C-alpha cells in the first residue's frame, strides 16, 4: 500500500525520460522510496530512477501482507504501460502551473494504481491505471569497477549532443587521457557519399571529474540516452559516466539528495569481427540470452519467448554473444569479475548455464529478484541504484533494497 | 583541386548561415560553384526539380577572412561541387557563437566539405566540432549545364509586395489550391489568384512600382509599347512559390519579379552582398 504526494515537474520528466527506453516500466515502491525502472525490448538499455521518500511531500508505504491470504492483494512491485501514464504527465510545464497536488496511491482491494491530480479551480483528475504483477528487473553493474569515469554538467552534454541530428541513432565516445571525442557512428557498409559525419572534440579540462584508466572507444545508442539528458538538464545535476572498453556497458547516472537516476546502455563491441553478420541494428543487439536469468514469475514466460527470439536472431557486431562462440575472449577476465555479482538466487535457477555464461559475458546482466528469494540473496545482491562508490544517505539502502 | 576558407566574424557567419538556410529551403541538392572571387549556388531547370531553377551569387570577400582555391586546371580555375545544402545548413546551425569556422575540401572516405567549428569552452582549449559533408565533384565537361540563365524577355517587371505579407497570403491559398496565378501590370498592380471548383480567391496589391530596366543597345524592350493596365500572368505551382517566400529569413533590399506571359516567372531578390534569382515555369 502506497500513498505519496510529490512535486510534479521532476517526476513527470522522469517518466518522459523512461519512456524513451520502453513502452512499459516497473513501478516499485519500497520503504525508502519509489523506484521506476525500465528495460528496452532488446535488453540493451536499462533505466532506473529512484526517488527517495524525502522527494515526496508525504510518503507512506506499508508492507504487503503475505501472499497466502485468500483475498487478492496488491503485491507490489508492478508493471505499468507507459502510454497510459504519460498522459497524466503530458505537459510538464503546464502541470506545474495548474496542478496543486498529485497523489499516487494503491489500495489492497483494487487492481489499480491511482494517480490523482488536484488542479486549480477545484478540478480533480483521477487516473486509475491497471498494472501487471511481476517481479522487478534490476541491472547488476559494478560502476565502481569501471576504469573510466567522467563527470560533467548536464549542460555540457546537452551542448555536445545538439550537434548531432535527432535522427542519429548511435554515437561513439572515444577517450584517451589527453582528449575526449564524440562522433557519429556508421556501420561498415554505410554509403559514405550520402552520410554526413560529425565529430566533437573536448579537452579533459571541461569535465568536473576526469579519469581515464584505459583508452577506449565505446558506441552506444544516443536516442535512448536523450531521455536522461533532458531529465538531468531539468534537474540541473551533473552527470556521471562510467564505462570501460567497448562491449562493456556504459552507465550515465545523476544523483542528488532526493533522487538517483541511471541509464545503463550496452555498447557495441567491435574488437571481434569474425564473420560478423551485418544487421542494420538500430541499437546494439543484446548479449547472450542465457545471461538473462529470470526467476520464476508471471513475467518469465513472456520474457523467455522474447529471449528465445533474440537467441535465434542474427547477432551482429557483438560476436562474442552467440551461443556457438565460446572462444576465449579477452574479456574473460572481466567476465569473471562480474560473475561475483550474480545473485545466488539466479545461480541456483540456472546452474548449468552459469559456467558457460561466464565465457560469453559481454555487457549487461539482468537478474530478476523476487520476494521469495529475499532471505537467500541477502547482501550479495548489488543493485545498480546503490553503487558503492557513492557515499551518502543512500548507503543505508544497500541492505533494504533487497526485495 | 583545393579549397580552404575561414570565417571569423560572427556577423558574417550568421549572414552566411541565413543564406545557406534559404538555399536549403529551395533545393534538396544543388551545385556549389567556387571561383576566386565568388560562390554560386545553382539549381538547374531539370525535370527532377519540377522545372524551377535557381541562381544565387555571393562575393566571397564579404564573408570569408581567408579564401583560397585552386580549380581543376589553370585555365579553368573553378570548382563545381554537388551537395545537399541542408547538410551545410545543419553544420552551421550550431555555430552561432563560434570563434571561427573553417571550410575545407577533403577526401576521406569520399570527397567532402569539412566544416570545422571552433567553439568557446570553459577550458583553455576550444571545443572543435567537425562536420564532414559528402560532395560530388562535377567534371569539367558538364560545367556547361550550369551556366548563368539570362534574364528572359519579360512582359512585365514589378516590385514585389512585403514578402512577409505575400508569404502569409500564399500560405493560406496553398490550403485551397495547388496552382496560383500571378498577374501584374506596368501600373504597379499585382494580383494573386487561385480558383477551384468551390471557390475563387484573389488578393490585390497596389502601388508596388515597376523597376526601370535599361534597354541594351538602345533597342526597345518588350515593355515600351505595352498598355499600362494590361496584365501579364502565369500560373505556377504554389508550393514552389511558397518555398521561395518561406525561405527568406531577412528582408531583401530589393525584391522584384519579371513575368513572361504564360511562360515563366523570374524572381530577383537582392541583399547587399547577395543576389538570388529563382525561375518558376508556368504550368499550361
UniProtKB/TrEMBL annotation, chain A:
Which reactions is this enzyme annotated as catalysing?
Exonucleolytic cleavage in the 3'- to 5'-direction to yield nucleoside 5'-phosphates
Residue ranges, compositional bias (Polar residues):
310-325
Subcellular location field: Nucleus
Q: Which InterPro entries match?
A: DNA_clamp_sf, Rad9, Rad9/Ddc1
> What keyword terms does UniProt attach to this protein?
DNA damage, Exonuclease, Hydrolase, Nuclease, Nucleus, Phosphoprotein
List, alphabetically, the GO terms of the cellular component aspect.
checkpoint clamp complex
Q: Where is the composition biased (Basic and acidic residues)?
A: 293-307, 337-351
In which broad location class does this protein mainly occur, judging by the first location in its UniProt entry? nucleus
* One GO term of the biological process aspect: cellular response to ionizing radiation
Positions of the UniProt region annotated as Disordered: 278-351
Q: What does this protein do?
A: Component of the 9-1-1 cell-cycle checkpoint response complex that plays a major role in DNA repair. The 9-1-1 complex is recruited to DNA lesion upon damage by the RAD17-replication factor C (RFC) clamp loader complex. Acts then as a sliding clamp platform on DNA for several proteins involved in long-patch base excision repair (LP-BER).
Q: Which PANTHER family match?
A: CELL CYCLE CHECKPOINT CONTROL PROTEIN RAD9B, DNA REPAIR PROTEIN RAD9
Q: Which family does it belong to?
A: Belongs to the rad9 family.
What's the protein called, per UniProt?
A: Cell cycle checkpoint control protein
This protein's gene is called: RAD9B
From TrEMBL, chain B:
Q: Which Gene3D superfamilies match?
A: 3.70.10.10
Q: Which GO terms describe its biological process?
A: double-strand break repair via homologous recombination; meiotic DNA integrity checkpoint signaling; mitotic DNA replication checkpoint signaling; mitotic intra-S DNA damage checkpoint signaling; nucleotide-excision repair; response to radiation; telomere maintenance
Compartments annotated for it: namely:
Cytoplasm, Cytosol; Nucleus
Keyword tags: Cytoplasm, DNA damage, Nucleus
User: Keyword Amino-acid biosynthesis on this protein?
Assistant: no
Q: Which InterPro entries match?
A: DNA_clamp_sf, HUS1, HUS1/Mec3
Give the protein's function. Component of the 9-1-1 cell-cycle checkpoint response complex that plays a major role in DNA repair. The 9-1-1 complex is recruited to DNA lesion upon damage by the RAD17-replication factor C (RFC) clamp loader complex. Acts then as a sliding clamp platform on DNA for several proteins involved in long-patch base excision repair (LP-BER).
So what family is this one in? Belongs to the HUS1 family.
Name of protein:
Checkpoint protein
**Recorded name of the encoding gene:** HUS1
Amino acid at each position: 500500500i502506497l500513498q505519496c504526494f510529490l512535486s510534479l515537474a521532476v517526476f513527470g520528466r522522469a517518466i518522459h525520460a523512461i519512456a524513451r527506453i520502453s513502452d512499459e516500466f516497473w513501478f516499485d515502491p519500497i520503504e525508502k522510496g519509489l523506484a521506476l525502472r525500465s528495460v528496452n525490448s532488446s535488453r540493451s538499455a536499462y533505466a532506473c530512477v529512484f526517488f527517495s521518500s524525502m522527494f515526496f511531500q508525504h510518503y507512506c508505504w506499508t508492507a504487503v501482507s503475505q501472499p497466502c491470504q485468500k483475498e487478492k492483494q496488491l503485491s507490489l512491485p508492478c508493471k505499468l504501460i507507459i502510454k497510459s501514464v504519460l498522459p497524466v504527465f503530458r505537459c510538464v510545464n503546464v502541470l506545474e502551473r495548474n496542478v496543486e497536488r498529485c497523489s499516487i496511491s494503491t489500495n489492497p482491494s483494487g487492481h489499480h494504481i491511482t494517480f490523482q491530480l488536484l488542479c486549480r479551480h477545484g478540478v480533480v483528475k483521477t487516473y486509475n491505471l491497471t498494472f501487471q504483477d511481476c517481479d522487478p528487473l534490476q541491472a547488476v553493474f559494478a560502476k565502481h569497477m569501471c576504469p573510466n569515469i567522467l563527470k560533467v554538467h548536464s549542460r555540457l552534454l546537452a551542448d555536445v549532443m545538439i550537434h548531432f541530428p535527432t535522427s542519429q541513432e548511435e554515437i561513439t565516445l572515444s577517450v584517451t587521457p589527453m582528449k575526449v571525442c564524440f562522433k557519429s557512428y556508421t556501420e561498415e557498409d554505410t554509403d559514405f557519399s550520402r552520410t554526413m559525419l560529425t565529430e566533437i572534440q573536448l579537452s579533459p579540462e571541461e569535465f568536473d571529474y576526469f579519469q581515464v584508466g584505459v583508452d577506449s572507444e565505446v558506441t552506444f545508442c544516443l536516442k535512448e540516452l536523450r531521455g536522461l539528458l533532458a531529465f538531468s538538464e531539468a534537474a540541473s545535476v551533473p552527470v556521471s559516466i562510467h564505462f570501460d572498453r567497448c562491449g562493456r556497458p556504459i552507465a550515465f547516472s545523476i544523483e542528488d539528495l532526493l533522487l538517483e537516476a541511471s541509464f545503463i546502455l550496452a555498447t557495441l563491441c567491435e574488437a571481434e569481427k569474425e564473420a560478423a553478420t551485418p544487421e542494420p541494428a538500430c541499437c546494439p543487439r543484446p548479449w547472450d540470452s542465457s545471461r538473462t536469468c529470470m526467476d520464476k514469475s508471471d513475467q518469465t514466460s513472456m520474457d523467455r519467448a522474447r529471449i528465445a527470439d533474440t537467441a535465434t536472431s542474427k547477432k551482429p557486431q557483438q560476436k562474442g554473444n552467440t551461443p556457438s562462440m565460446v572462444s576465449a575472449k579477452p574479456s574473460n577476465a572481466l567476465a569473471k569479475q562480474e560473475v561475483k555479482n550474480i545473485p545466488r538466487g539466479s545461480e541456483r535457477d540456472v546452474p548449468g548455464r552459469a559456467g558457460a555464461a561466464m565465457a560469453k559475458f559481454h555487457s549487461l546482466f539482468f537478474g530478476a529478484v523476487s520476494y521469495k528469494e529475499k532471505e537467500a540473496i541477502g547482501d550479495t545482491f548489488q543493485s545498480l541504484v546503490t553503487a558503492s562508490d557513492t557515499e551518502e544517505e543512500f548507503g543505508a539502502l544497500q541492505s533494504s533494497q533487497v526485495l | 583541386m583545393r579549397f580552404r576558407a575561414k570565417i571569423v566574424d560572427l556577423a558574417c557567419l550568421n549572414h552566411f548561415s541565413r543564406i545557406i538556410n534559404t538555399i536549403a529551403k529551395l533545393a534538396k541538392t544543388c551545385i556549389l560553384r567556387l571561383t576566386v572571387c565568388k560562390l554560386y549556388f545553382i539549381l538547374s531547370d531539370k525535370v527532377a526539380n519540377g522545372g524551377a531553377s535557381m541562381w544565387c551569387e555571393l562575393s566571397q570577400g564579404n564573408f570569408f577572412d581567408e579564401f583560397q582555391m585552386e580549380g581543376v586546371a589553370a585555365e579553368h580555375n573553378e570548382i563545381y561541387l554537388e551537395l545537399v545544402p541542408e547538410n551545410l545548413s545543419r553544420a552551421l546551425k550550431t555555430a552561432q557563437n563560434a570563434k571561427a569556422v573553417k571550410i575545407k575540401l577533403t577526401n576521406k572516405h569520399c570527397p567532402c566539405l569539412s566544416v570545422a567549428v571552433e567553439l568557446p569552452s570553459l577550458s583553455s582549449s576550444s571545443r572543435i566540432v567537425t562536420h564532414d559533408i559528402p560532395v560530388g565533384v562535377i567534371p569539367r565537361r558538364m560545367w556547361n549545364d550550369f551556366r548563368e540563365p539570362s534574364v528572359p524577355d519579360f512582359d512585365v517587371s514589378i516590385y514585389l509586395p512585403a514578402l512577409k505579407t505575400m508569404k502569409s497570403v500564399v500560405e493560406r491559398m496553398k490550403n485551397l489550391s495547388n496552382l496560383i496565378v500571378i498577374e501584374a501590370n506596368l501600373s504597379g498592380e499585382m494580383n494573386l489568384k487561385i480558383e477551384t471548383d468551390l471557390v475563387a480567391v484573389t488578393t490585390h496589391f497596389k502601388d508596388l512600382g515597376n523597376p526601370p530596366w535599361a534597354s541594351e543597345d538602345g533597342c526597345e524592350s518588350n515593355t515600351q509599347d505595352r498598355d499600362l493596365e494590361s496584365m501579364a500572368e502565369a500560373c505556377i505551382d504554389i508550393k514552389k512559390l511558397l518555398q521561395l517566400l518561406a525561405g527568406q529569413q531577412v528582408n531583401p533590399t530589393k525584391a522584384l519579379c519579371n513575368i513572361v506571359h504564360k511562360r515563366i516567372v523570374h524572381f530577383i531578390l537582392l541583399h547587399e552582398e547577395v543576389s538570388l534569382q529563382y525561375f518558376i515555369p508556368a504550368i499550361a
